[in-house]
Amino acid sequence: MKRRTLLATAALALGMTVGGGAFAAGMDHVKACFVYVGPIGDGGYTYQHNQGRLDLEKALGDKVETAYQESVPEGADAERVLTQMALGGCNIIFTTSFGYMDATNAVAKKFPDVKFEHATGFKRESPNVSTYNARFYEGRVVQGTIAGMMTKSNKIGYIGSYPIPEVLRGLNAYYLAAKKVNPDVELSVIWAYTWFDPAKEADAAKAMIEQGVDVIAQHTDSTAPLAEAAKTPGVIGFGQASDMAAYKPSPRVTSTIDNWGPYYIKRVQALLDGTYEQTDSWEGIASGEVEIGEITDALPPEVKAAAEAARDAIADGSRHAFTGPINKQDGTAWLADGQTPPDGDLLGMNFYVEGIKGDIPQ
Amino acid sequence: MDFMGITPSVLIASLMVASVPIMLAAIGELVVEKAGVLNLGVEGMMIMGAICGFVTAVGTGSPLLGFLGGAAGGAALSVIFALLTQVFLTNQVATGLALTLFGLGLSSLIGQDYVGIKPPATGAIPFGPLRDIPFFGKVFFSHDWMVYASVAIIALVWAGLKFTRAGLILRAVGEGHDAAHALGYKVIRIRVLAILFGGAMAGLGGAYISLVRVPQWTDGITSGAGWIALAIVVFASWKPWRVLIGSYLFGGITVLQLNLQAAGARIPVEYLSMSPYLMTIIVLVIMSSGKGRASLNAPASLGQNFHASR
């Protein structure tokens, strides 16, 4: 019975699409579904997406119904989950991890009436796929500034998940900001090849600390690196994706918070109003999608002031994370003096900037 | 004495810590398999131990009680396995896999309110001047008590299986349950006790992850350690001391590959990451060839259910 009602609705929607203006009539009720790469209890990336979902429920009340599936592997399983959701009556599906890119586009082709929103990707192969992202690398400027000023060994670390543009942007921005305030700084990189594996993340942090690294930034989702940093006095780190407030005031001296709520509300509201359009959204600190968590007093006042200045300069547009002159690792020129990169360069970033040692694994 | 920025003593010390959870789970599983039972639910029992240990430690403020709670949690989950396979004679492989899935889900449910909390710290044992001995001080005298306890447990299991009457009976049950039954040994009772021991050890290993190694609770915190433990038992060809070596090898490779990366070594990490599993496959191939001496060491009744009527 339910399936039949659904088909009728779908047919109606299709009729409207053909009749004129996609979803121009709006909707009374939207079912929004979310696919998460980790568990909602990860305390980081997926936790924040789920907070965005809860914000959406709170803001739109009974006009919206939400569903989610957590810990969905990136790959063939994702396609199965998406198909199931599309068949299950979801009007809009948010796929919240880069690795869902191909699955999202493949399923979207089969369900032209369902809206798909893919986080951090760049493929929009059919008109019902939109992409959204946040300029997380802007937060790395604040972290890099703190790292450069706070390190005593001049060794700072970055725990990367996978060598993809998203992570390389943050890594390069972090290094450049640190080098700006401390030209002697060296960056040590560990690729964990996972978004979420607390034990491995903790081991990675431990390996860094044992080699003299005293400021650790992470681009993985759990709080394990901070827990590891807490064991050694003098080592600091940063909250990633979520505030990770349990580790205040140190080792967590500040954080980059993904604030997805406003975007989710905006998109579902547009669907309700009938003003929904395919978009490619990429907002940062200025619009509040990237929030800088409290900068704690564990930092000396001058460091705290410098970090706040970096944050404010990025918010008002007077500073860009990548401002030339910047060379690539192999010494070839990337940006001329004073130049900032177009978004295309950032989205496809696949190199280390000059000064970072080691190779990007292929 | 450093190699590419890696200090050997520090590396060995941290691989000893990294190996504790898989070592405990593997030695527990070894006893279970020696009794002729194949419990593939190690991952589920570990994560139950991780959350139960965490909840107990946070609630009481005592890491020691936390570890006991973890062992109890793992053992409690293994009771389900014992009941299903030993009383209702279900398929051990299927039941073990189901136990893992159940444990992952249940731990996530219990852990809902424990995300982002810090457990009480388990400190290193103060060995005083011993810690200052070059190299050996760092390697042998810088750990928390669980590191030493895990090695002690290996020694106890080895001695127990080799020298005691109880160990002999346990092995008899695993090698030929009908013969053991004919001799008057309670096959089911002995197997249930072995399963409980295995559960408790897996739980202890899980608790070590959530209380010491990562010190926090997050869903899926064990992330596959239980499967590695299962592989180690095979790798060790059911010999306790080889479990120790296997754990250090497997744990060591993880630590080594991260250290090599941090030191900027140009070694493809993928090869190092997969090497433990490659080794397991090679061991499995050698064992299943039927000619290698190691193959003789697998308990003859492994994975077979027993009922007195047959």
Short description:
Chain A is an alpha/beta fold. In chain A, 39% of the residues lie in helices and 19% in strands. In chain A, the strands form three sheets. Chain A has a six-stranded parallel sheet with strand order 2-1-3-4-5-11, with helices on both faces.
Write structural notes for this entry.
Chain A has two domains: 23-135 and 260-283, 3-Layer(aba) Sandwich (Rossmann fold); 137-257 and 290-347, 3-Layer(aba) Sandwich (Rossmann fold), CATH 3.40.50.2300. Helices cover 39% and strands 19% of the residues of chain A. Chain A has eleven helices and 14 strands. Chain A has helices at 2-19, 45-60, 76-87, 101-110, 136-150, 165-181, 198-210, 224-229, 261-273, 301-315, 343-347, and strands at 30-35, 64-69, 92-95, 115-119, 129-134, 155-160, 186-191, 215-218, 236-241, 252-258, 280-283, 290-292, 326-327, 333-335. A six-stranded parallel β-sheet of chain A has the order 2-1-3-4-5-11, with helices on both faces. In chain A, α3 (76-87) runs parallel beside α4, α5 packs parallel to α6 (165-181) and α5 packs antiparallel against α10. Chain A is globular, with a radius of gyration of 21 Å. The termini of chain A are far apart. In chain B, α6 (145-163) crosses α7. Chain B is 68% helix and 0% strand. Chain B has 310 residues and is mainly alpha-helical. Chain B has a single domain (8-297), classed as ABC transporter involved in vitamin B12 uptake, BtuC. The A-B interface holds A 38-43, 47, 71, 157, 188-191, 193-194, 196-200, 202-204, 206-208, 210-211, 213, 222-224, 227-228, 230-231, 244-246, 357-359, 361 and B 5-7, 10-11, 14, 18, 21, 108, 111-112, 115-118, 209, 213-216, 218-223, 225, 254-255, 258-259, 261-264, 266, 268-270, 273.
